[in-house]
# Entry
Amino acid sequence: MGDQVKLIATPQSLPCCRVEWALKLKEVDYEYIEEDLRNKSAFLLESNPIHKKVPVLLHAGKPIVESLVILEYIEETWKDKYPLLSDDPHERAMARFWAKFGDEKCVVGAFGAAWLTEGEEKNKAIESAQESLAFLEKQIEGKKYFGGEQIGFLDLAVGWIPHWLKALEEVGEMKVLDPGRFPSLHEWGQNFLEIPLIKNSLPPREKVVEYFNAGRSYKRSLEAANKP
Amino acid sequence: MAEVKLFRAWSSPFPLRIVWALEVKGIEYDMIYEDLSNKSSMLLQYNPVYKKVPVLLHKGKPISESLVILEYIEETWKSKTPSLLPGDPYQRAMARFWAKFGDDKILPLIWEAFIKQGKDQEEALIAAHENLKYLEVELRGKKFLGGETVGFADLTFGWLANLVSVFEEIAGVTLIDHEKFPLLLTWMKNFMDAPKIRETWPPRDKLINHFRALRETLIAKEPK
# Structure
């Protein structure tokens, strides 16, 4: 077994992709174990008994879960190649703060808005998601990437925006990342997607749309099943 | 005047984690108390995103979110012992995992169980216990989650040590019982006895009055 690295993941899942990008940037060899989330494997349930989710990184047999925790682990374990975080503690704190914000406010906000049917509640949810994105717009203004001249921790953490948010907009029949309102974020997104390592590992958009739709139907069927 | 300032509210558990970290590491700091019902313009300027405490100000630069602040403290004052995180990357990942788990799964459910009544309270308590079981298992053979001394994850769960008994007294319900969670209760006692912990936490009677009033307000707002 030695130092073998395995990743239990689903190709269209955004937290899984951010982990893959980190592994690829650091040129870490890993075995990809694809998981069907509607029929979870015993291996997944054993490796992540608490959350039962992907991604799970296994290194020398030991599992690490929660994508941002995994990113920190990758950064600290494979120190020699491609630093994801600055050496400066304040900059590191900013990257961590905005990554957490991205997940707690932007991801939650965008998905929340997507699942609502057309109407005032949906419009309010879209506006709220946009207010969150406005903070990221301010952060990227005047910079090529969040990491500076090259992508880093925060770029990977919010890297879902140019591709997954587009799919979510399609599924949710909404427009969130309006280039007029978020010119810097939009430009960053375009630059991010052009990076060969990123471009070559993106799941096809139709597959992401399908994945989101399947997730929504599955959730609704669970809710319907739970109704008295 | 210290080069470190901490914005806090006296009753909130999140800034208390930072107080503990600074005290345990012997870092000098000034405390600035906020009235959360009347936030200062300074707080709003330093934490425009969440408008919350804690905010750590170091050499004029603000950092928010307690777990981010704890990592910042650990990295900035590297020579100040004890370390809050171990050296090994896997152990560090575990500490970060448990800290996140506590904040995402335990704290909100215990809070729900405290502020709700009847069936809602029962359901919140069942869910809290489901999650606390994992923590109980993790504590096997350990004095603290960090090992022999209080660490990152312990500081994150520290609110259990001072607030659970306060919540239990006010709500008249047992949130963490001896039979189901003996190791957790032992951990709570060890934590409270650790250096700098109990001496820096708010007085119990003040906490009781504060949270009792807060609970009554929240219950009154509930739709009938």
Observations:
- Chain B is about 55% helix and 10% strand.
- Chain B has a mean pLDDT of 96.
- The radius of gyration of chain B is 18 Å.
- Chain B touches chain A through 22 residues (CB under 8 Å).
